[in-house]
Amino acid sequence: MKAAVGIDIGGTKIAIGLVREDGMVLREMEFPTNVDSGPDQALNKMVQHIRSMYSVEPNIIGIGIGSPGPLDTREGKILSPPNLQTWHGYPLVKKIESAFQTKVKLMNDADAAAFAEYYYSHRSGYNHMMYVTVSTGIGGGLILNGKLYEGALSGAGEIGHMSMESCGPICGCGKMGCLESFSSGTGMMNAWKQKLTRLQQPIDPNWTGKDLFEQAASGEMTAAEVVMNGVDYLARGISQAVQLLNPELVVLGGGVILAQPTFYKQIVQRVPSYLLEHHRRNLTFSIAEQGRNAGFKGAAAIIHAENY
Ligand SMILES: [Zn+2]
Fold first, then answer.
1. Any idea which architecture 3-108+292-305 has in CATH?
2. I need a surface site. Which of 70, 108, 254, 291 has the fewest CB within 10 A?
3. Which family does it belong to (predicted)?
4. What is the CA(83)–ligand 1 centre distance, in A?
């Protein structure tokens, strides 16, 4: 069976996998990105690991790379991701192509995760899928007509930066009132702390998202309000995207969704109330299934899909 290499680049670590067409991971490895030491040292490690994969499978059909954006996917360059400061302008695709004479494709990391969910879990049942990941931020990816839809500048699916309020919390992107600033793990924690400060209630600096959800579940009012607000904004954001694109399936993933099944259920219950009857009737929800390897598996899946 054919195998492709998938690479998942993150601000803290880089994961590489050798993935078969059916999703079986034949080999995987991971190392720290060490952003401060620049991209060349990371490239050397990537090349070294990929070379060792050629000894497992000499007929690798291509290499897919998922990276935080913004990217220039046509030129194969990393543009200016905030968590890869020393990589700005780095021609990653050319560098990897010159090391291995094979097809190399660069894509947005949320697109790679979205495509992993589609290709390995849902492609036999659906043609139109929207993926939303909720963790420290909120990202998304779109599969339309059975294909990854990247948009003109590989910037499609940025659901986290949809403007929900003209005046709202300042988002990591610099705008005000983005969906991410209300409903991401970070956004909800910030809102909770601000509420408690305003009420002059004590804040434990060690609290995490887990504490927020536990306190909300036990009926603590400020935590419950923040989570309810997070659910409502997210449901509104998702419903607006659903009405624009009319997907049949919405897959929700990311650390917050996977750790908080009640949060997932609340969103699924809430979205339909914001939809037109026509959209509501044929919409299915699913929780992400591809786990922590979704990034490199999806990057490899794009290569498989193009070779199909
Ligand atoms: Zn934003």
1. 2-Layer Sandwich (3.30)
2. 291
3. Belongs to the ROK (NagC/XylR) family.
4. 15
Question: Could you tell me the distance, in angstroms and rounded to a whole number, from the CA of residue 169 to the centre of ligand 1?
Answer: 10
- Give me the count of residues in the chain: 308
Q: Could you confirm whether domain 122-288 is CATH 3.30.420.40?
A: yes
**At 267, phi and psi to the nearest 5?**
-65, -45
In this prediction the pTM is: 0.94
285: its two tokens: 């929800």
| Tens of pLDDT, residues 17-72 | 999 999 999 999 999 999 999 999 999 999 999 999 999 999 999 999 999 999 99
d(CA 50, CA 68): 21
Q: What is the end-to-end Cα distance of the chain in Å, rounded?
A: 12
CA–centroid distance, 275 to ligand 1, in Å, is 24
Rounded distance between C-alpha atoms, residue 7 and residue 293, angstroms: 10
Residue 307: pLDDT band with limits 50, 70, 90 = confident
Ligand 1 mean position to 181 CA, how many Å? 7
